[in-house]
Structures are given as C-alpha cells and as structure tokens.
C-alpha cells in the first residue's frame, strides 16, 4: 500500500516532504523487527521511547516514520498527536479493516474473561461455526494455537491476527479485552458486535489510579461499541445486573443492553441453582424460553460465567438447545479449578485466582464442599498491584485452615518483600500459616501435610508454565510440580 493511501484517514500535521510514491510493505512499532520499506511508528512506552530508535529503524530499511515530534531522519517523518492511537488506525487500515467482515465478541471484567471466551468457543463450535479466540492462555484459530505475550495484543498484532482469522475462514472471533488494552487504545477501531461485562473488583491498581479509573477504562469497551464503521450487524452490550458497576456501563453505551442475573429481574436469569462438588444445575430463563443446564463446572462464579456466555450467544441468535448442549459438555478450562488427580485420597486443585475476589470465590466454593481441612498455597505477583497483597493473604486465612504463602512471578521485586506485604498486617496467629518462598517447596509441603479428604488449593498461576524471576521465565507448572509431589509422597 502507498504511504499517502495509508495515511488518507489519519489526522497528521503538515509535513514539508513528499509522502507520495512511497510503497509501504509493513507497519512496525519495534525497530528491531523493521524490514525494508516499513513504516516505523514511534511509541513512547512505559520503559522505553520508540522515538529513540528511529536511527535503527531507518538502518533496517524503514522508508517513513510516524512520530509525535519532528525528528531528524533521511526519510519522511509524519508528525501526529498520539502515535498509539494512530498506530491502531494504521493497523486497521493496513490489514484491510478486518473486523468489518469478522463477527467479533469482546469480554471485559476483572474475573471470568478467559472462562467466558472458552464457553463461547464451545457454544459457537456446537453451532457449526469456526471460531478464533484471543486471550490470556493463547490465540486459537480453529484447533491451531499460537503463543501470546499479553491477554490483549497490541493493535498491530491484533489486526494482523484478525486478518489471519478471516483468511482461515473464522466465522466468529471472541476475545478478552483487558483494562490495560482499553486504556492504551490497543482495541481502538475494532468493530465489536457484542461487548460482555463479567464483574468489577480490585486488581491492577498499580496501573490504574483507583477503582473508578479502572472502571472508566473498562467502560471504553461499551462507549466505543458501534462507533466504528457500520457493519449492518446489530450491537449488544451484555451486562451483569448483579454487579453495581453495570449501572455506569449501561450509561456508557448507546447500544441495546441485555442483562443477566442470578438475583434480580433481568433479560436472562439463572433460577433453581444447585451447586454441588461434582457440578452445577440451574434453569436458564431467557426471552426465547427456558432450558435446564447440567454443567460439570463448579461454583457460583461459573453460573455467572455461563449466564454471560449464554446471553451473548442468544444475542447472536444461537438456538437454546445448542447453548445447552455446549454448556452441558464442557468439563473445564485449562488451569481453572483444574484437579490434579493421581488417585490420591486428598484433592489437589490448581486455579488461576490471583485477585482478592477470585480467591474468595474459589475458596468459598471449596469450603462449602470440604469434608476436612482446606490448605491454600498462594502468592502475589511482583511489579503488580501491591494493595491486593494483604487482602489476598487475609482471605486465604479467613477460609483455609492453613495457608502456605509463597512466590508467584516475583518479576523484579524481592520475593521476601512481597511476602512481607502479604503478611505484615495479619492479626491471626502464625500457627495458621507458613511462609515458604520457593513455590516448589511450598507445594511439596502442602502435599506432605494433606491427609484423607483434605483439599489443597494451589492458586494464582493456573495454566502458566513458568515462574518469572527478574526478567527470566523459568519452566514451572503447578500441575506438574503437584503431580510429582503426590507421587513422591505415595498414594
Ligand atoms: C505496562 C504495559 O502494559 N506495557 C506494555 C507496553 O510496553 P511498553 O510501553 O513498556 O513498551 P516499551 O518496552 O517501553 O517500548 C516502547 C516502544 O519502543 C519500541 N522499542 C523498544 C526497544 C527497541 O530496541 N526498539 C523499539 O522500537 C517498542 O517496540 C515499543 O513500541 O506495550 C507492549 C507491546 O504492546 C506490551 O507487551 C507491554 O505489556 C507488558 C509486557 C505487560 O506486562 N503488560 C501487562 C501489565 C498487561 O498489559 N496485562 C494485561 C492483562 C491484564 C489482565 O489480564 O487483566 C494484558 O492485556 O496483557
Ligand atoms: N465470574 C467470576 N467471578 C469471580 N471469580 C471468577 C469468575 N470466573 C472465574 N473466577 C476466578 O478467577 C480466576 C480467573 O478466571 P479467568 O481466567 O476466567 O479470568 P480472567 O478475567 O480471564 O483473568 P485475567 O485478567 O488474569 O485474564 C479463576 O481461576 C477463578 O478462580
Ligand atoms: N493478567 C494478570 C495475571 C496475573 C497472574 C499472576 N500469576 C501474576 O503473575 O501476578 C496480570 O497481569 O496481573
Ligand atoms: Mg484472562
């Protein structure tokens, strides 16, 4: 595509060099990846400033630069007010506005996003549609999986992935939309047909100023819904009526709203809920009829996840019988409430709870079914929200009989300091908990302690297959470590 064509819809300041007759083969934001005839977009990030890498980009063959200030370079420099936003617009245009043609559902909220995307994948697959999923665990196109760095990729990778999905006949894309992504404009330009809200509770207060600012970021998914090019597809906001934040989100969107609830009158409701250690049953009450659901998923929070997914599926005109078939068939999501079963006489569950609310939900669920002692192995991520640390430790002790506090991706922080943040305000006796910084030893300790009918929850890392210490990711899988510990102890 020619540079002047690419810039046609981009608001930029006057440039006194010609931008005509420059062929652009690729758009990039990382000077290290620039190939000949690229357009290099300078992003001022959190740790680095892309404007410092113009020379390297040009040396690698960039034939034009987009920047936020005039920069000396022997190729044209186009100056714009906000390169991050412009990058999203350029990416959308460069890849041919893929979401104009690709039906797209976005899921935001503090907890449950990954779960809801995989519920929706199963529902649409049962409806004979090829799906594409983007989120925390991976990107998936049909059955092919691709690794990801972020829950929501940057705008370039995102639009490229959508184009790839279209080329591989994906009929329904489903993605997690993190608050970081909304705030940084990573999804600017994406034409969502359905925007889903799961819930709001504390997380990411390292990044967002306060919980209102966090909600403001989430609300962008709803305020931007339908603001892109019209696809002649109806738009819906799907909101959790039982979460007070939905009031704000309802006011943020100009599009029709569908609500779901377990407690109040709503468009889609769950009634006659029966929670059990082996699964969950409820009646799904919808505007197009009612149907009984018999799911293997455990816990009240999963009823909410199933409601969110069902409401979106109804908005996309999936028949109720298909929704039931899908929800009844799902056995679980990778790393979410995943049992490690070596036929031992105590239970070990690996879960991705890494926020106060999710930890409380999952422990409450376990506590309801526990016959004997509950152990929890849990830590808090380094370089992330410090204010959630004492809250998570308090919740662990409130519900579990014994907590083992350990490390969870300490990143560049001192693990002892993170553990100190978790435990220094605890008012309970120290007999209730251990501090074992090494996660492998912590898991081994819990396994050694467990007796018949006890339950061990290993929280925080779920599907992750690494422990990040400093900037290095070391191989580490809670499930594998637990399995080895169980075998070592003997059945
Ligand atoms: C704080 C944050 O979100 N940072 C994201 C951001 O990185 P950054 O702004 O720090 O980038 P930077 O390293 O400063 O570089 C700035 C620019 O210089 C360029 N550069 C840099 C070096 C060089 O040699 N040449 C060069 O051109 C870079 O390519 C970039 O364009 O942009 C990067 C590219 O898009 C992201 O990968 C990165 O996510 C980091 C890894 C991260 O940990 N993010 C977390 C907090 C996050 O976003 N999490 C949410 C999930 C939350 C949830 O699940 O609820 C997510 O969506 O993943
Ligand atoms: N609806 C929910 N409400 C509260 N907690 C939930 C809910 N769904 C799942 N959880 C808990 O949160 C954990 C993470 O779930 P999931 O991965 O689906 O959320 P997420 O929003 O994608 O998280 P992340 O922001 O890290 O990507 C689960 O392991 C479970 O403990
Ligand atoms: N999406 C979450 C993942 C947290 C996972 C936990 N294991 C940690 O490293 O803190 C985040 O970026 O905060
Ligand atoms: Mg997720």
Task: Give a verbal description of the structure.
It is an enzyme of class 6 (ligase). Residues 107-313 form the Mur ligase central domain. This is UDP-N-acetylmuramoyl-L-alanyl-D-glutamate--2,6-diaminopimelate ligase. Pathway: Cell wall biogenesis; peptidoglycan biosynthesis. The N and C termini lie far apart (64 Å). The model has no long low-confidence stretch (mean pLDDT 95). Strands 8-7-6-9-5-10-11-12-13-14-15 form an eleven-stranded mixed beta sheet, with helices on both faces. Strands 16-17-21-18-19-20 form a six-stranded mixed beta sheet, with helices on both faces. Strands 1-2-3-4 form a four-stranded parallel beta sheet. It is an alpha/beta fold. The chain has helices spanning 3-6, 54-59, 83-94, 98-101, 113-126, 155-167, 179-183, 211-223, 246-252, 300-315, 320-329, 356-369, 388-399, 415-423, 439-449, 478-489; strands at residues 26-28, 38-41, 62-67, 77-79, 104-108, 131-134, 139-141, 144-146, 172-176, 194-197, 236-240, 257-261, 268-276, 279-286, 289-295, 338-339, 347-351, 374-378, 402-405, 433-435, 455-459, 466-469, 472-475. It has 16 helices and 23 strands. It is 33% helix and 22% strand. It has three domains: 3-94, Udp-n-acetylmuramoylalanyl-d-glutamate--2,6- Diaminopimelate Ligase, Chain: A, domain 1 (3-Layer(aba) Sandwich), CATH 3.40.1390.10; 98-329, Mur-like, catalytic domain (UDP-N-acetylmuramoyl-L-alanine:D-glutamate ligase, 3-Layer(aba) Sandwich); 338-489, Mur ligase, C-terminal domain (Protein-Tyrosine Phosphatase, Chain A). Bound molecules: ligand UAG, adenosine-5'-triphosphate, 2,6-diaminopimelic acid and magnesium ion (MG). Ligand UAG binds next to helix 7.
């Amino acid at each position: 595509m020619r540079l002047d064509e690419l810039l046609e819809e981009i608001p930029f300041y006057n440039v006194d060099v010609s931008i005509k007759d420059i062929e652009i083969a690729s758009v990039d934001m990382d000077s290290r990846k620039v190939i000949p005839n690229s357009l290099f977009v300078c992003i001022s990030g959190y740790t680095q400033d892309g404007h410092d890498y113009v020379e390297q980009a040009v040396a690698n063959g960039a034939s034009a630069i987009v920047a936020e200030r005039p920069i000396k370079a022997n190729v044209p420099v186009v100056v714009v007010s906000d390169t991050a936003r412009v990058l999203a617009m350029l990416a959308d245009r460069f890849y041919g506005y893929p979401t104009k043609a690709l039906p797209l559902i976005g899921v935001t909220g503090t907890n449950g996003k990954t779960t809801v995307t995989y519920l929706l994948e199963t529902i649409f697959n049962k409806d004979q549609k090829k799906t594409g999923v983007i989120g925390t665990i991976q990107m998936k196109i049909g059955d092919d999986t691709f690794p990801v760095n972020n829950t929501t990729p940057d705008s370039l990778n995102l639009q490229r992935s959508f184009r790839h999905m279209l080329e591989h006949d994906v009929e329904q894309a489903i993605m997690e939309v993190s608050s970081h992504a909304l705030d940084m404009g990573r999804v600017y330009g994406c034409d969502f047909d359905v925007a889903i809200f799961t819930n709001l509770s504390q997380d990411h207060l390292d990044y967002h100023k306060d919980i209102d600012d966090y909600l403001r970021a989430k609300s962008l998914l709803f305020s931007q819904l339908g603001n892109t090019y019209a696809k002649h597809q109806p738009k819906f906001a799907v909101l959790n009526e039982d979460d007070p934040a939905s009031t704000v989100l309802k006011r943020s969107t100009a599009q029709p709203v569908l609500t779901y609830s377990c407690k109040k009158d709503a468009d889609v409701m769950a009634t006659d809920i029966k929670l059990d250690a082996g699964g969950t049953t409820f009646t799904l009450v919808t505007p197009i009829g009612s149907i009984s659901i018999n799911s293997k998923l455990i816990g009240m929070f999963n009823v909410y996840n199933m409601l969110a997914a069902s409401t979106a599926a109804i908005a996309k005109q999936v028949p109720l019988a298909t929704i039931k078939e899908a929800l009844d068939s799902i056995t679980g999501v990778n790393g979410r409430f995943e049992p490690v079963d070596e036929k031992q006489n105590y239970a070990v569950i690996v879960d991705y709870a890494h926020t106060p609310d999710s930890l409380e939900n999952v422990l409450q669920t376990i506590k309801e079914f526990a016959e004997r002692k509950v152990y929890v192995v849990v830590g808090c991520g380094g370089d992330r929200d410090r204010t959630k640390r004492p809250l998570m430790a308090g919740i662990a002790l409130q519900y579990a009989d014994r907590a083992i506090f350990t490390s969870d991706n300490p990143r560049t922080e001192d693990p002892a300091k993170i553990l100190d943040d978790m435990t220094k305000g605890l008012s309970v006796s120290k007999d209730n908990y251990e501090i074992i910084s090494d996660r492998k030893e912590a898991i081994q300790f819990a396994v050694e302690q467990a007796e018949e009918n006890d339950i061990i929850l290993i929280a925080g890392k779920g599907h992750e297959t690494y422990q990040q210490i400093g900037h290095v990711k070391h191989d580490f899988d809670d499930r594998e470590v637990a399995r080895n510990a169980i075998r070592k102890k003997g059945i």
